[in-house]
Amino acid sequence: MTTHKPYEKLRLWQLAMDLVEKSYRLTRDFPVEEKSGLSALIRRNIMTLPSRIAEAHNAPCTQSSSAILKSAQESLLEFETALLLCRRMHMISNWSTRRLRKRAQHLTNLIDHELSLLVQTAPETPSAAS
User: Fold this and answer.
1) From 12's CA, which of 49, 69, 94, 117 has a CA 20 to 30 Å away?
2) In whole angstroms, what is the distance from residue 79 CA to residue 49 CA?
3) DSSP notation for 70-116
4) At 20, which CATH number?
5) What is the C-alpha separation between 95 and 79, in angstroms, rounded?
6) What would be one Pfam family of this protein (predicted)?
7) Per-residue pLDDT tens over the stretch 23-64
8) Distance CA 86, CA 56 (A)
């Protein structure tokens, strides 16, 4: 990624941690039979988000950072899909679904922005004809 400050100071990482916290609070009230099902899936999936952002921040090259950030976006899509399933099963309210999806989509947009910055700052690779 493009800065040298500690990953904990990145706004993207902080927002991801906020989403993890909200997700953990949401799933704490899930039915007992879902503790090893949807609850575990959501928690495991969303926890990868700040981890991947930190990993991308410390990646050795732009290509690695980009791949890791794209993986983080995939995690967000999986998270949103799980939220929609929870809503269909009446485990969470429409309001909670909208609120968390809005946060997830905001993070996706921020990651898109970070990816575009990486492309802009990536060194030119020599052409094969040279």
Assistant:
1) 94
2) 10
3) HHHHHHHHHHHHHHHHHHHTTSS-HHHHHHHHHHHHHHHHHHHHHHH
4) 1.20.1440.60
5) 16
6) 23S_rRNA_IVP
7) 999 999 999 998 889 999 999 999 999 999 999 999 989 999
8) 30
Residue 26 belongs to a domain:
yes
What residues have CB less than 8 Å from 106, skipping those under 6 apart? 15
The answer to whether position 69 is within a domain reads yes
C-alpha span between 72 and 48 (Å, rounded): 7
Is the predicted pLDDT of residue 128 greater than 60, yes or no? Answer: no
Closest CA relative to residue 26, chosen from 87, 110, 109, 108: 87
Query: Containing domain of residue 61, as a range?
Result: 7-121
- The average pLDDT across 112-125 equals 81
Prediction pTM value: 0.86
